[in-house]
Amino acid sequence: QVQLVESGGGLVQAGGSLRLSCAASGRTVSNYAMGWFRQAPGKERDFVAAISSSGLSIYYGDSVQARFSISRDNAKNTAYLQMNSLKPEDTAVYYCVADVRYSTVVRDTPAYWGQGTQVTVSS
Questions:
Q1: Is 56 left (phi over 0), alpha (psi -120 to 50) or beta?
Q2: What is the pLDDT of residue 121?
Q3: Among 11, 45, 98, 118, which residue's CB has the most CB atoms within a 10 Å radius?
Q4: Can you list the positions of beta strands (E) in 68-111?
Q5: Residue 89 and residue 92: Cα distance in Å, rounded?
Q6: What is the pLDDT of residues 86-113, one digit of tens each?
Q7: Is 65:47 a contact under the CB 8 Å cutoff?
Q8: How far apart are CA 50 and CA 68, in angstroms?
Q9: Contact at 8 Å (CB) between 114 and 6?
């Protein structure tokens, strides 16, 4: 079992930055791929970013390419999402995810999800 808790969301102006954190716990958290999804009310869930257990493989969704960066610190059991040049269309609930398979985080539905943190970008 893996538990994920997001933090760092809030209200920012367009062009600003936020850094989201995901605190993970479990028996073998360091062996899991992790990532981020987001969902706005009434809209489909969007893939944001994924990172392998080693941190050597990283993949971003097209909508955030060149603006967001994902990282992880396995010693602290924490993943991060640095969000720069934020746009109003980035407004959503952001979910931290984890799965034993990196490909599942990238292409499918991961096994473990956090409760989400709200990010609101004003124009």
A1: alpha
A2: 98
A3: 98
A4: 68-73, 78-83, 92-99
A5: 8
A6: 999 999 999 999 999 999 999 999 999 9
A7: no
A8: 11
A9: yes
- Non-local CB neighbours of 9 within 8 Å, separated by 6+ positions: 18, 20, 94, 117, 118, 119
Using pLDDT thresholds of 50, 70 and 90, give the confidence band for residue 29. Answer: confident
Closest by CA to 19, choosing from 78, 106, 75, is 78
The residue among 4, 7, 13 whose CA lies nearest residue 91 is: 13
Of 98, 118, 106, the closest CA to residue 2 belongs to: 98
Measure Cα distances from 119 to 4, 28, 53, 105 in Å.
Answer: 17, 29, 26, 21
What the block records as the tokens of 61 is 């969704």
Q: Which structure tokens are listed for 70? A: 């994902």
Distance, CA of 2 to CA of 57 (rounded, Å): 21
